[in-house]
Amino acid sequence: MRRAAWAAGLLLAGVALSGCADVRYLTQAAGGQLDLLRRARPVEAALADPATPTEVRRKLRLASEVRAFAVAPEAAGGLGLPDHGSFLKFVDVGRPFVVWNVFSAPEFSVTLDTSCFPVAGCVGYRGYFSEAAARAYAQERRAAGRDVSVGGVSAYSTLGYLNDPVLSTMLAYPDATLIRTVIHELAHPALYVPGDTVFNESYATAVEEEGMRRWLAAHGTPELREQDRLAQERQSGFEALLLGARAQLEALYARPDLTGQRRREGKAAVLADLNARYATLRAAWGEYAGYDAYFARGVNNASLGAVAAYAAMVPDFQALLARVDGHLPAFTESARVCAQRPQTERAACLRGS
After folding, report:
1. Which of 158, 178, 191, 165 is nearest to 227 (CA)?
2. What is the sign, positive or negative, of the torsion defined by CA atoms of 240, 244, 245, 250?
3. Residues 124, 112: contact at Cβ < 8 Å?
4. DSSP per-residue string spanning 293-324
5. Which of 76, 83, 283, 349 makes an SS bond possible with 71, Cβ 3.0 to 4.6 Å?
């Protein structure tokens, strides 16, 4: 995953607010977050530093421009997102990912195991700032008989509780992805509902889509538009492939007539077919290898559970945005009203019913 738009950074708040028995886990989360904040320096200082590589300097300027666009009032041509002081500093993380997320699920279910924390609510993963620590925890889950997946993350949001810096891991991606990431992460502090990942991700994705549309209209080049179009096309194809396999497994596991062994055999067949379908899709993309690492880790219930329809409510949010004539602050306030409803009623509320 290129980013964790979940509230991984809120684990820091959990240390102060929780009497949770898993102090070691919360402590590593707080320590990792504080390390980033300690090493961060103003973006201006990184830009002025002659040791900063040319490409890093260029992408830092781009991230700063997108940030300014995102927090500027709509009347001034921006998105009107709240300014919590994020992305004004830069930190070289010094590793390929900022966090490694561990997902686990039962042998015959694609529903993720969850962990619950103050403020952030319940989330279907545990995030570690150390890859070794993540893999150690993953091994514990495997020993308990769970399907497990470990994935690196390049960005996340602390929801405005801390001044998130631009991370070097964010700059490793093409310009279109960087633009989307900055907008997406800046959207999260505007509206977050503890424990409802689908609502939170769909909201931020809807803002990302609208923000990218406006950015391209104001600043896009033919090259950037094509880069974004191709990336979104591949992402959609990849997600459709995985969600299809996930649905097959859900149907398989729901059959009461199957024994455990028959379910294992059916599961193996679905996953083998998924790998074959990916090979076909990869070839249609001209052997684009951007998703190879995902499949190399080994696809299972946990990895498929992690790609559950986190953006399933995006059409509902887009319908709401259309009803307020594209006015993003009004859109956020209307969505906030829906967020106060019971979780089962939120999608209908967004649709105006």
Report:
1. 178
2. positive
3. yes
4. HHHHT---HHHHHTTS-TTTTHHHHHHHHHHT
5. 83
User: Which residue shows structure tokens 């609502």?
Assistant: 199
Q: Report the alpha-carbon distance of residue 168 to residue 95 in Å, rounded.
A: 9
Kindly state the helix (H) or strand (E) to which residue 233 belongs, with its residue range.
Answer: helix 222-253
Neighbouring-strand partners of residue 101: 127, 151
> Does 344 fall in a domain?
yes
- Give a yes or no: residue 303 inside a domain: no
CA 170 – CA 49 distance, rounded (Å): 19
Nearest to 280 by CA among 246, 305, 244: 244
What tens digit of pLDDT does each residue of 204-213 get? 999 999 999 9
- Average pLDDT score, the chain: 92
* Residue-level pLDDT at 116: 83
Tokens of 205: 């994705």
Asked whether 28 and 137 are in contact (CB, 8 A), the reply is no
pLDDT at residue 14, as a whole number: 41
β-pairing verdict for 115-117 and 126-128: unpaired
In a domain, 256, yes or no: no
Structure tokens at 217: 């209209």
How many domains is the chain partitioned into structurally? 1
Is residue 231 in some structural domain? no
What's the length of the chain? 353
Nearest partner of 174 among 296, 45, 55, judged by Cα: 55
pTM: 0.91
Neighbours of 41 (CB within 10 A): 13
110 lies in which domain range? Answer: 8-226+311-350
CA distance 353 to 344: 13
Only one residue has tokens 């992460």, namely 185
